[in-house]
Structure formats: structure tokens, C-alpha cells
Specification:
By secondary structure, this protein is mainly α. It has helices at 12-22, 27-32, 35-53, 59-64, 67-88, 102-107, 112-134, 140-143, 149-157, 159-183, 186-200, 210-224, 226-233, 238-256.
Length: 263
Amino acid sequence: MATVISTTKNSPSAITSRYAQSRRAWWPVLLFLPGRLVFALVAQAIAAGVFALQGSLTAWYDAAAWWPVYSTITDVLCLAALVFLTRRESMTVVDLFGVPSLNAAVRQLAWIPPYMLAVLPTVAVASVVTQAFYASPVPPIVTIVDLPASAALYARLVWPLLWVVTEELVYIGFLLPRMEALTGKTSFAIVVVLLFWGLQHIAIPLIPDGTYLAWRLISATAAIAGFPVVFVLWGRRLIPLIVIHYIADLTTALMATGVLHIP
């Protein structure tokens, strides 16, 4: 028997109604907009602290090479925040997927091909940006990774799935419909979410270099730009976007750990 999951609790109209009836404050939602960026900085700081305790004089840079591993700290903090924020609304984190049953989630997989075709143009723009900045299709977040075998295996098997699911739940599952409910404007909500979603990437990992920071912000924002747009225009199906995002991040993990090579 399929597990029943609410399909209406997370709609902008339902959210608007809940906040109006209970007079809930919006400030926790607004504070969560930069939450993933802050948590990413905290995660890298923790990893840098470990290297510093081991005597490293370049602890911040040493930590950056481990970003596919320590990023799990970011995800754990985000999931804990989502548990708190959804409980405020008498919801669960599972409600953010927006599917009424597991069977419905499986049926959404049929939308992967059209969704993928729809987001490919902005992903291609991100690739062009990388080529323009570094004259190479291989980005610095790939070349900086330097992990032992066990950590590399973790980066391939665990990081992409946990990262993608958490990230999609944060920005599209949670923040986007709440920004729509708060502002009453879907287009404005998309812009706000993309701003913070793109900005988050400057801290994954954070390297204090102007060229890198500009590339990270522009390329990441371009790569994700199609996701909330397709989500809103094509039936608010989150599962296909999670799968597409997973394929992209798994590719990154395989490149960063030396399994996949791009000439």
C-alpha cells in the first residue's frame, strides 16, 4: 500500500491560508533564505578547524579540497532547519515533495525527458561561462578536490544524492512557494530564490579569489535558472528536477574523483 503524502499543504494558496489564519510570522522563512549559504560557510570552517588542529598553515584551502565530504554538514543543518520550519506549519519535510503517494512520485519520472530538454539551455550557458572564465570545460571545483580513496567513494555514493535532495527541498520545495505566498508574485519569488540559490554556490567551497567568486556566482545561477521556471510552468513536479539535478551532480562527483575525464 502506497504511503500517502499531502499534495495540497505545500501549495502557495494553502500556505497563504495557513499564515493568515494562524497569524504566523514570516521572519523564520526570510531568515532561511541565506541559510544554506551560512551553513556552507560553517561546514567549511569546521573542516578548516580540523586541518588547523593538525598543524596546517593553509587550513582553509586544505578544507576546500574536501568539499564533497564536509558538505554533508550543510545538508544536515538544512534538514534540521526544514524539520523545524515545516513543524511550524503542521507539516513534515516529506510534504515538500508535493506528491500524494509513492506511486505518484514514480509516475512523475515520465517527465524527466521534457524537463531535461527544458533546462538544458541554461545549463549550456553555464558551460559557456566556465569556458569564458577558465578556457576549459573543467571547473575549479573539480580540479581542487583531493581525496583519499574512502573519501572519494563517499563523494560518489553519498554526496550527490543527499546534496541534491536537500537543495531541491530547500529552494523549490520550501522557499519558492512561501515566497510566492508572501509576495503574491510568482515571477518575483523565482528571482528571489534564484538570487539566494546562486549566491550559495560561492561558498561551495569558498575560495577568496575574485575571478573564482564571479565565475561561481554567474555559472551556478545560469545552471539552475531553468529549474524553478520549469517547475512553475509545468505542473510543479519536483521529482523530475531532483533526478536531473542528481545526474548533473553525480557527473561532477565522478569528475572530481577521477572516474570521469573530460578532454
